[in-house]
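Q: Fold this one first, please.
A: Sequence and structure below.
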Amino acid sequence: MAGMSDAVRTSYDAVAGEYEKRIAGELAGKPLDRALLGALAELVPRERPVGDVGCGPGHVAGYLAELGCDVVGIDLSPAMIDIARRRYPKLTFHAASMLEMPVADGAWGGAIAMYSVIHLSAEERRAACRELGRVVRPGGIVMIAFHVSDAAHGPGDAVDNDEFLGRRIELTMHFLRPDDVAADLSASGFAEHARLMREPDPDVEYPSRRCYLIARRGAD
């Protein structure tokens, strides 16, 4: 696991600047994503923070903050965290793994993981869901977004990439089965609340079919 985490950290550190240029403004062209984030902001208990897990340059955290959420961002890449802190100086960001977050048990009212589980093995993904189950309070809400398929790959496929945004990297991207992710959440104490599948918009994003799972944390 450590080796895989090191590769992900190093890869995103390498592309952080270009990633910010290309991705940090993406919500302007994604009305459905904005609507789902708005729904999440209404569903989460407001007395505790919302965690943006795999926050990248912080644009999702910034949008949730505009909607009135108290947001904490976490990302494995220190370079991404530096960008997020620069862009959103009033928000809190931590460089940390989603497999071991510096968060107390039940400290969050909810969490969002936008495409941050796609580089995890099945074992790591289950561990990440258990960690979400630890840090999100009973009654809290999580939303996980991920790639399901594209023109060349189906659910369950894994693609090893050695180039991204013009830089040499080492990243494995997993196309995930929604039922598998839902089962991981269920095993970690969450009950599925909603599921949405959508087709890609090639003008603003990688052309993959995507899934958004929203789940509620059950009582202990």
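Q: Good. Now the second chain.
A: Here it is, same layout.
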Amino acid sequence: MLTDPMEFRSMLPIHVILCPTDFSAHADRAFHIACSLAREYVARVIVLHVVAIPQWEVGLDDLRERLSGYTSPDGTVVVERLLLDGQPVEEILDIARERPCDLIVLGTHGQTEADRPWMGSVAEAVLREAPCPVLTVGDSPSILHAEEPAALGAATH
């Protein structure tokens, strides 16, 4: 049994946390959790918003402004902001691999277990393909490891 928090940190070293956002309330909550974790692990957070290619020219300045609002609540965490065009799942996974990220903290929209077969969500696809553990944040956070697809059935988000 782990009793020392430092022992847990050495088991799961976290230096870079990827936090994709669609600017929803769940994504905002995920960002605050990512910052809390980053503070504890002395890690940095990459906030990523992906614009679908056909929408790229619409509201670009507004998106940049919204993304710039993602700052560390207490100023102690380094936050990098990325605005990319493309398919959200592909871009999230590419950044997770390229940077390389140790954890993805991702807001979900609170789908029920019954909705899962039809969900087709970004969160579900990222969970299946992520190169690192994924923390999903809906009404309550759940840690799911990409290496353990069976854990998907345990998620309620």
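Q: Anything worth noting on the second one?
A: The beta strands are 16-20, 44-51, 79-85, 103-107, 134-137, 141-144.
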